[in-house]
Amino acid sequence: MIKITDLEKYYKTEEVQTIALNKLSFEVKEGEFAAIMGPSGCGKSTLLNILGMLDDPDGGSYLFNGIEVAGYNERQRAKLRKHNIGFVFQSFNLIDELSVFENVELPLIYTGVKPAERKERVHEVLEKMQIMHRRKHFPQQLSGGQQQRVAVARAVVNNPKIILADEPTGNLDSSNGNEVMDLLTELNEAGTTIIMVTHSEHDAKFSHRIIRMLDGQKVTENVLV
Amino acid sequence: MFRNYIKIAFRNIRKNKLYSFINIGGLSLGLTACILIMFYVSHEHSFDKFHEDSDDIYTLRAKALFGGDTIFVQNFSAATGQMVQENSAFVDDNIRIFQEYKPLIIKRTGLEPKSFSEEGFFYTDPNYFNFFSFSLLKGNPETALKEPFSLLISEEMANKYFGDENPIGEILQVEKDSIYNYTVKGVIAETPSNSSIQHKFVASVSSLQKTKGNDGLFNSPIVRGGAFKTYFKINDATQIEKIAETTNRLSKEGNSESKDLFFLYPFTETHLKFSRNAGIGYLDVFPLIAGLILLLALINYMSLTTARASYRSKEIGIRKVNGASRKEIAFQFYIESTLFISLSFLLAGILSFLLKDFFFNLLDINIDTAFFLNQNFILTLALIFMVSILIAGMYPAMVMASFNPIENFKKKTRNDLGGGLVRKVCTTLQFIIAVILIIGGITIREQMSHLQNIDTGLNRSDILMISLEKSMGNNIPAFRKEVEKLPAVKGTSISGYPLYGGYDMFYASSENGEPMALPFISIDKNFFDVLELKWKLPPEDPFLPEQPKKLVINETAIEKFKLKNDPRGQNIEMAGAQFEVVGVVNDFHYSSLDSPINSLAMMVSKSNSSINKFNSGSLYVKYQKTSSLPALIKSIESSYVKFDAEKEFSYQFMDDAFNEMFKSEQRLAHIFNIFVVLTIIIAGLGLLGLATFSAQKRIKEIGIRKTLGASVFQITSSLSLDFLKIVLFAIIIAIPIAWLLARNWLENFVYRIDLNIWIFLMASFATMFVAVLTVSFQAFRAATSNPVKSLRTE
Fold this sequence. Notes:
Chain B: This is ABC transporter permease. By secondary structure, chain A is an alpha/beta fold. Chain A has 7 helices and 10 strands.
């Protein structure tokens, strides 16, 4: 599903150039649940941004479903992204001015789904995430766990092939964190590929494989299953 | 998607009340100014366009050489129109209009007699309703003006004289030299405010022919100047030169010595070109300034919206991550701008409607409310609306759409994402405009006050001018005597005209000089004392000027007519007779300050009534400064009505008559004052918004500084300084621009002020004051906030 080869990314400031990704290569197969771990600044988030097509690499190859996307421009990336990728962030990233229903509805709007179908699909996913009763509330009115469930609902409402999760439990207490991990596991079991960046060994254990990084390079790879 | 955008826009408006208030309030104010100004300007440009054939109608004008002066002739002989039409294939129709330039006494006889002094009395040809698009509510437009002494009256007059009764067939007595009975043949719908022809009474032109003393108006069988405004309806606009040539030829055929140069002018442009009220020069300036004010408000909107961009960056990031394209984000912000502008437009519409009477009163103009529905005005509004959306929406949409989602997520602090430099440029631009307008406002004010306080060579204070009509007749001496008996009255004088209200012109020459036009007024001997005129060369015998065929002249006349330094005893030939100069007064302003003082001849009459034998005149009453004016006016009025029961008592202060001459400048000054206040409010609001934003943005920095021991003053000044630097920079740029503009404007005046440095200093100081007040208020609030709280928000 995803294959990166010798992927490179640099950040330049006026005086120094920092290497964020240094000839990184690995593959994630369809239906896999992969965890990426490593200390702060090792390039995990940069990697996730490139995998999520929010950013473009400075070198190397990125095959998505067999298509080379490394040279895509913003418009092309946006098009591919909205049909294939769902995101879950540590800080939930819900729009404060929109209700739970409207937040979850957002990706469907941008893929041009008709209003009646949107309503049906949003309700379906909210039921599944057990936050249907909160659909008219605004993000500030929800607990952290509930907010993250809304974020997960939003990530999956478009039935993406892959979900990229950036420390999804980082802002949650353990019981809420576990709930979210259970949700991701369920989604994975239903066929969705998941790549998760995490600091938590506990969370990483939910995955099939752990890729450990340091200074922009892959250090080890542990298969858990 | 659309609904989603509208929803989020509304929620944002509600959530950020201060920003919404500044944005919508500022835009509404700018738009209100723009709407009202455009309303006025469109109205001025719409004059006479409501006539169906307006594009085909031309008015006849001529330039006539009168001695060394060129005079514009707008009235022609009775024969002119018809002769030109008969000799030019390009003229389809012509019409003549004669307007009574003095009020007439009109009386309804019968059961309930009513008598009023009326203006707006016209005589015209029977094709009036065919030629123009005035509508007749009652009566037959084809025949109504055929018979002599047929009269059409406006709806207002019909109500005034006849109330609910049917006026058709009723008699109205019109008093001129004699009393004439006119039969009302119809009622005309009220003329719109954008008509240059404002009739209240329209009589058949044949009535004029049968009116005593007016038969002479019809005697001249040639093309020449005369008493009738003459209009043509032409069939080929490219041939107006040809028609003018034909007219010139006919004029020469009638009088081979004629040097008159005839030309045709489009009827729809005559108001702007020739009307004294139009003030065309400023009409071009108003939309420009209204546009600047609107631009200022739009800049505020743009600059505040992008300043707030960092608050919206997370939302934009999320939208992008969830599939929104750049185009969709840009579209969303365009929708938001459209919503803001629509709301502001709505509010501005309501404000304009509420403020229109105040605004029109201030400018002393009268516009029908129905003009709000004028097609061109509505089109102008639509254009302003579209341009506002385009300008205000574009930049924020571009800035927002170009955000990089990862940057947005990564940045934990609320950094300045949306074009800090552009915002600085915008604020600078705003303050440049503000300073220019303020300097403009002060300059206009100073120039007006300069004109009003200029030494005009006479003392016009504490003088009332009471109009005397023919209807007072031989009662004038008795009336004057009664007025003079009032304890508050210091003296009186009689003149053929109210001062600044006109004079006669004669073709005159001396033995040495070329013949030229000589302004002339009839006065009595008190004139010099009442106006406190200074004698340059007094008459040798004080009673000499009252003798027949004697003249008093001013200094300029000596020079213009090449008279001796002491011209007493020399003759001036005027209207075919020799007049002896018996005295010379120092120059004084007796007409508009647009041009330098011209020569003047004054004939001093012994008899009160001879002065207004042919004209109505004016009684000048000089009163004690300390007297109670309402009581004085009341006493004069009660004497007046004893001697003239027909013409309403009317008076004017000489000071007011003088100020009346600067009407269009005064209008400009009023509009400018409004503009200046608006500019300061809008620019101030913008600065307030930016300062608030800046303080919020730097709240962590302020917290850290305070923790490390910075004082409130240090923080306030560090926050304020950035903005004040911008304002100072704007002032430096604005001053030379304003200086150039003000100098150019002042060149229109013969008597003008020097551009003093204090004008610029005052404007700079005022701007700085507003800026310091706005910015430091916000900065102080931020500086006094609790650092623990601000650090915790991070």
